[in-house]
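Researcher: Here's a chain I'd like modeled. Treat it as a single chain, no partners, no ligands.
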Amino acid sequence: MKKTGLLLLLCLTVAAAAQQADSAAADQAAPQNTEITTGTFPVERVQTPTNADINCGGFVNKELVPNSKFVAGGLESPNTTKFATNDTIFLAGQGYQTGQQYEIVRELVDPNKYELFAGQHSMLKAMGQPYSELGRVRIVDTRGRMAVAHVEFSCEVIVPGDIAMPYVEKPTVAFHMPQRFDRFLPNNGKASGRIVLAKDFDLLLGTGSKIYMNVGANQGVKVGDYFRAVRSYEADLRDPVDSLSFKASTTDDTQKYPPSIEGHMFTKTKGPSIQVADMPRRAVGEVVVINTTPTTATGMIVFALEDVHVGDNVELDQQ
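Model: Modeled as a single isolated chain. Structure tokens:
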């Protein structure tokens, strides 16, 4: 009985020491001289990009990818027009060699023609041409006028007309330890930009979504860098949907002088005027860079507290 009691006491002592160490580590990761609350500084558990995430993210580039090499068909053409992993496809063009690997990409156009935020189209035009990454193939036969290739890996279906470009292996992203996420961190003055486009032309984004930012290698951005997605309440005020909530009544019948919100055509009252521009901006998510060009970066959202929007601002995370 004495041995059992001593063993139990030892276990409790070790557990208490471990708990204190975890608490100290969390306090060290949190901003100093600030009251820590789970609402203001939640712990972010960052999702590490997989090989598929890194190779299927797509990119935006000022320099157009040459389209002289492209997918012309496959083993079961014309009955099959969509190809995926382990299919055999035919590549038109010159200069193929057996054993070479090529990446299949697609030059994109948005069929919707609708701006997700004011100025999006002009901003995207300045960034360059968006491309989706579809998969990787290996050349297995070059004896005919077209090269025969084996699809080793596909992100999505490959179709005739998609472009073949030499494959370059991409660097991986290191694991990111959990740490406190400061929702109201002021601007740190580091490299900043905007989410101009998202993969599949999505608008509302979450963990795992791929985005394209108008900041790149020329600004010192590299694969593995983390950016913080931030949004001001003025952005909500300008949004045609989110701004509707500002027009709704927020007062109580018992208030003698209810407030008014500056920026909307409300009846002026004797109550205080709420200045939306004075509200602190909030961080909505964390983005890791998985690919760069001189002027753009492809990112993956690895942590989100709420929906991340195309049009949100991003800045290099000082952490």
